[in-house]
Design goal:
Blueprint (H helix, E strand, L loop, with lengths): L5 E4 L3 E5 L5 E6 L2 E4 L4 E4 L3 H18 L6 E4 L4 E5 L1 E3 L2 E8 L3 H6 L6 E11 L8 E2 L1 H6 L5 H23 L3 E13 L11 E4 L7 E5 L9 H4 L5 H11 L26
Antiparallel strand pairs: 1-2, 2-3, 3-7, 4-5, 6-7, 8-12, 9-10, 9-12, 10-11, 12-13, 12-14
């Protein structure tokens, strides 16, 4: 499929115009970033694995009636997607306390939450994706009450489904990030606006722990220098029974990593 002009480039993906109106080609890069882009590296094969894992999960969600932007996977690194206007909020669903939650509130690492916790963050890297409340969302018109209620319900539905999926393959779904977008109306304005799950769901956007050993199988391997990131992602793909298409992925390889000092606050 022929790619058109570049529409957007983020830390992990590039969007290109697709031949059909209202669609785009989403390309998964090998870039790895952490700490709001302060730590960076190129990890060969990461984009291929994220593309395949995200396609598997989003396809599964489509099948149970949760509409996503995914149309189909085109090749090893690219997906054809519906073009949406991203709502500038990251929806964080937490099942087990870790990361920023433990630092902010002094909760013990690994505490299992009685109920899933949904947090909202304003999507802006330059501000560090700050935590916001519903009142901020309404005050600054990021979305209306009806839309936010719909997305909230979708978040908990997705969490229920993913917890079951990962539990079945011996993985704890600790927490994960979701993004949603609005479909764009056509020129006549007749297209009904829909809210679709967008972006990706992969080990880049989830915290995944082995159910027995609690070994990290996600981007925390890179964040915390815990070993071979590709092997962790490959293990997730192997358990999902989709690794057979990735036989040409070689072990982890860093190309010109950028070392930086992280200032302690």
């Amino acid at each position: 499929m022929k790619k058109g002009k570049k529409l957007y480039e983020g830390k992990a993906k590039i969007l290109y115009a697709a031949p059909d109106k209202g669609t785009a080609i989403q390309h998964f890069k090998d870039d790895a970033t952490a700490f709001n882009n302060q730590k960076k590296a190129i990890i060969e094969g990461k984009g291929i694995l994220n593309n395949r894992i995200s396609e598997h999960i989003l396809s599964s969600l489509n099948h149970i009636g949760i509409e996503t932007h995914l149309i189909k996977r085109i090749n090893m690194r690219e997906q054809l997607i519906k073009l949406v206007e991203i709502i500038p909020i990251e929806f964080i669903i937490r099942n087990i306390a870790t990361g920023s939650l433990t630092k902010r509130l002094g909760i013990e690492e690994g505490t299992i939450l009685e109920k899933p916790l949904l947090e909202f963050c304003y999507k802006d890297d330059s501000l560090g994706d700050p935590l916001i409340a519903r009142e901020h969302i309404y005050a600054f018109n990021y979305c209306d009450v009806k839309t936010l209620n719909f997305i909230t319900n979708q978040c908990f539905r997705i969490n229920d489904f993913l917890q079951g999926m990962f539990k079945g393959i011996g993985i704890k779904l600790v927490d994960f990030k979701l993004e949603f977008g609005r479909t764009r109306k056509n020129e006549s304005g007749s297209t009904t606006e829909k809210i679709l799950l967008a972006d990706e769901i992969s080990p880049d956007t989830c915290r995944l722990w082995d159910a027995t050993s609690e070994k990290k199988l996600d981007k925390d391997i890179f964040r915390k220098d815990l070993g071979n990131l590709i092997k962790g992602y490959q293990e997730v793909a192997r358990r999902l029974d989709i690794l057979h298409e990735q036989t040409n992925i070689r072990p982890i390889k860093f190309t010109k990593p950028i070392a930086v000092k992280i200032k302690k606050k």
